[in-house]
Every structure is written in structure tokens, then in C-alpha cells.
Specification:
- By secondary structure, this protein is α+β, with helices and mostly antiparallel strands.
- Helix content is 45%, strand content 15%.
- It contains 4 helices and 2 strands.
- A two-stranded antiparallel sheet has the order 1-2.
- It is elongated and about 45 Å long.
Length: 73
């Protein structure tokens, strides 16, 4: 049996904000997070928690998996 593992790459939040024509401030207000927190995710300084990723994905009309690069190894 072949085992597939996954590696998470960089955050794609900036891309999804652009596609949705939304600013970091607007996303922060809509999710109840601070702009500073959103900025940390977008700049790859911090990794989103499951809850944060779920809330952000819902606001950006995408799947949680779409918020990061995902590589198979």
C-alpha cells in the first residue's frame, strides 16, 4: 500500500482577497478578527487555526484547503 503524505505551503490569503475584491480590514471586520491577525496570516507570519481558516474560507467563498498551497509527497 502506498502512503501519501501532504505538506502545507504558503498561505494564499492575499490571492483570495484580490479575487473577492476585499481588503484585509474588511475581512477582519466580517470575521471578528483584527486586521493585524489577518495581516499575519497573509504575510505567512502565523498559521491559521482550524476555526480561523473555516471562518475566513466561508467569507471568501472557498474551501479551507484553498487557503494554503498543498503538496503531496
Amino acid at each position: 500500500m502506498v502512503m501519501v503524505t501532504y505538506r502545507v505551503g504558503k498561505c494564499l490569503l492575499r490571492y483570495h482577497l484580490t479575487v473577492n475584491k476585499m481588503t484585509q480590514q474588511e475581512l477582519a471586520e466580517q470575521t471578528g478578527m483584527t486586521k493585524q491577525t489577518i495581516s499575519r496570516y497573509a504575510n505567512n507570519s502565523h498559521v491559521m487555526s482550524y476555526q480561523a481558516a473555516l471562518n475566513i474560507a466561508k467569507k471568501l467563498n472557498c474551501q479551507m484547503e484553498d487557503l494554503y498551497e498543498i503538496f503531496t509527497e
